[in-house]
């Protein structure tokens, strides 16, 4: 597990990160979201050791991170860093060898990644001759070539078309499935909501919410249910229920506890036909807007 523990960092007196703590669990895709300037890139640079924290610590499995740990990480920086005039495959092999792989292993891994990322036919082309979306895929391959023990990716999905997002996602999921912690930043909350197992919401240099989607929803929503039935008027008389919306056979309500919601369902069944009964799920987008204010 990768942990960011009580990290603070200022630039010229302006605090970019304020006592930031969160965990990136092994085997999970953790989305790192926040508006422009929230501090995502600064936090990622500190994880990778390209920037020092003023205070706080990055930990791997509970102990302070070392240069060896970092050397085994895969990183996709905001300022993309490949050689424009070098062929894609050659470049991946070169990077793999820098990480201590044999030429043959690096070539095999490069072939596999380029195939998975849909770049096999462009593998002998120079990076600069590729479209921006394909350059982005090559960047992702570069972060993965040495079979990293953890992945830290700054905006890996930006500029990718929906098909490329799916392909990239599958490749990243493979890394997570193999047990590595994967942290990726994004502005696109809809993408993150769909792709990540867990998320960290940052605003003005502070963690405003963290956890799985369900944990964040539970922490920021009073659970709501929607019942569609013949006449829903009886719901008003049930203890522990507050009716939010009522229209004949339709009622939306909150309950003090799930037991109270069960009582509504049981009573509705006794009274006749239940067309539907379901929790009303608050969109993450709405929670995000609320917590980053
Ligand atoms: N090297 C630097 N010198 C001065 N200020 C900096 C530096 N790096 C970051 N900052 C400031 O720190 C704050 C956080 O920036 P950061 O790039 O980490 O945010 P971000 O969440 O990654 O934003 P974006 O999504 O726009 O990339 C901003 O106010 C930024 O201007």
Notes on the protein architecture:
The protein has 10 helices and 14 strands. With 293 residues, it is of the alpha/beta class. A 6-stranded mixed beta sheet has the order 6-7-8-3-9-10, with helices on both faces. A hairpin with a 2-residue loop joins β12 and β13. It is elongated and about 75 Å long. The protein starts with a strand and ends with a helix. The model has no long low-confidence stretch (mean pLDDT 92). The structure holds adenosine-5'-triphosphate.
What is the structure about, briefly put?
By secondary structure, the protein is an alpha/beta fold. It has helices spanning 40-48, 67-71, 88-98, 103-116, 132-144, 162-177, 189-195, 213-220, 258-271, 284-291; strands at 2-11, 14-24, 29-33, 55-60, 63-64, 73-76, 150-153, 182-186, 198-203, 206-212, 224-229, 241-247, 250-255, 274-280. It folds into 2 domains: 2-213, P-loop containing nucleotide triphosphate hydrolases (Rossmann fold), CATH 3.40.50; 221-292, Alpha-Beta Plaits (2-Layer Sandwich), CATH 3.30.70.
* Distinct helical segment count: 10
Bound molecules: adenosine-5'-triphosphate
- Cα radius of gyration in angstroms: 24 Å
**Count of distinct structural domains:** 2
Percent of residues in helices: 25-40%
Would you identify the regions where 5 or more consecutive residues have pLDDT less than 50?
none
CATH architecture of the largest domain: 3-Layer(aba) Sandwich
> Quick one: CATH superfamily of the largest domain?
P-loop containing nucleotide triphosphate hydrolases
